Amino acid sequence: MKVGLDVGGTKTDAVAVDASGTIVGRVRLATGWGADAVIGTVLTAVRALGAEPGVADDVIRSVGIGIPGQIEPGTGRVVHAVNLGVDELDLVAATAPTLGVPVGVENDVKAAALGAFALHGGSGSMAYLNLGTGVAAGIVSEGSLWRGARGTAGEVGHISIDPNGPLCRCGQRGCIEALAGGGAIAERWARSGALPVRDVFDAADAGDTRARELRAGLARGVAAAVRVLVLTADVDAVVFGGGITALGDRLMSDVRAELAASAEASPFMRSLHLEERVELLPAGSPAAALGAALIGAARDAEGALTHG
Description:
Layout: E1 2-7, E2 11-17, E3 23-30, H1 35-50, E4 62-67, E5 70-71, E6 77-81, E7 86-90, H2 91-99, E8 103-107, H3 108-120, E9 125-131, E10 135-141, E11 144-146, H4 176-180, H5 182-189, H6 196-205, H7 209-233, E12 237-241, H8 249-265, H9 267-272, E13 278-280, H10 287-307
Helix pairs in contact: 1-2, 3-10, 6-7, 7-8
InterPro entries: ATPase_NBD (IPR043129), ROK (IPR000600)
Protein name: ROK family protein
Family: Belongs to the ROK (NagC/XylR) family.
């Protein structure tokens, strides 16, 4: 049995997956702040899963962890996980001795891409587009994650599509993330509320001019990300996940309308059938945790080969 954890800024989602790929246990708990608290969260989550019916500590063979921030290639070191209060942390060294099983670590969006690919059927090629506070993607082909030469494959959020557009936190103007990232939209909306992007959609429906501009910019940014992913990687499907996708059909109808508008003006774009290649990850899907479990299992397999 393999365990996967999606360590987020506020909560950690953990799943236990059996040999057939079925999720047989799932727990959620608050994520601690700072390196020591993150380590404690991981260990607590694994212990909690081991206490679930049908799961036991002695049958857990591997643990995979999806976490925000940059993962140094070939290591378990996490750097710049600012949403967790972690500047630098070797998560494998900090947890594997206690857990007593192989531990794998991956960026949370890339882990979610692997999980979404498995949930999507596990064949062909797919891009997972995460629409949350920021915008980023993971690309999977036949079960393999494409990281690129330096691990930046899929960082579509920082492609500028409007040099005169809003300033992005990366320093450029008009980036996809500056238009479609939840954090950027909330900052530009500048009104208090628990769910600023939803408030923008509601205000746009009520006729607010500023809200309509922000909502149109979101659709424009997401549609641009879809075009980039298809035109560069020619994936079979682009699957949307992340907090903004809670808007469901309200989001999808806007994005499809934007894609249809570009197709209307270009026979080439029409030939790509982009509207048919986008879909939402089902609400509540534990994609990142499932993907993390697959990453941890890969480490277990590597260990088995290394040690005979």
